[in-house]
Structure formats: structure tokens, C-alpha cells
Design brief:
This protein is α+β, with helices and mostly antiparallel strands. 34% of the residues lie in helices and 32% in strands. The strands form two sheets. Strands 1, 2, 3, 4, 5, 6 and 7 form a seven-stranded mixed β-sheet that branches. A two-stranded antiparallel ribbon has the order 8-9. 33% of the residues are buried.
Length: 164
Amino acid sequence: MRVSEQEESRASQALRWIVDALDRHNVPYQIVGGAAARAYGAYRELVDIDIYIPFDEAVSLLEEIQPYVSWGPQHHSGGEWDLTFLKLNYGGQKLELGDSSSEPRFFDQKNQRLVEQRIGYERSTTVELFGFEVKVIPKEELVEYKAALGREVDRVDLEEIFDG
């Protein structure tokens, strides 16, 4: 299912807002999840925009975005993840910022264990997403990550990335 122009506009505005703030505060970031899959050809509707940042380097950013925080930052352990993150709502678009400095982990379905989510900002790929350039997890890392998570949404993303 292709997404609506309204969803594209909402996602574009929210992503531009957060990336501008990240750049202004010199905070490294890496877009992961469904938005990263979108950058590589997936087209399903986004649930949220997932971005990793190092919270320990983002104090002034976290203060600036506080009015948009709907939850957290808090540590969450259960299900697919063990990480510290916060949820934002900007213009009706949900965003989640994960803290890469807190050693995030995800559940690898194939091996049935939690594994470290390594975020290498220096390995980020610059791609166009929603009309402007952003830093995204490298495609091969995204594919490995989504294959390991193995949820239905991950299988859909992988199918859409490779089948276009």
C-alpha cells in the first residue's frame, strides 16, 4: 500500500524539524527502522521515525525538543528491545529517539537472544528522504537488523526494499 500525500507531508515536516535541530546542536544521528527502509525503497506507511542519537552529547537538543516529548526518556526492557529512548510528537508525526550511548540491544529472533545494536555514525549513508538529505543506517546493516528482528513489519520492509 502506497502512502498518502498527507502522510508524506507530515513525515517530511517532522523529519526536517528534527534533523535541523540535530544539526544546529551538532548532535550525530542515524535514522533506522521504517524510515530508513523508506530511504532504500520500501513504501509501507510509517508508524514512527526512529533515530539514534547519543543522549550524553545532546543535552541542549533534549532541552529544546522538550515541548514535543510525549514519553520519556526512560529505559525500556522487554519484547524486542532493551534501550533508553523517548517519544516525540511533532505535527501529528511520531518520532522516537534512541540513546546510542546507553548500549541499546535488540532481540535477535534467529539466535533467540539480545544482541548489541551498534550505531556507527561514521558509517551512516547520506540519502534523500522526503525531499532532503539525511544520515541513514547503511543498507546492508539495515537488512541484517530487520532480518534478525524478524517481525512482520520487518519482513514487509525487506520485501519492499528488494522487490521495489
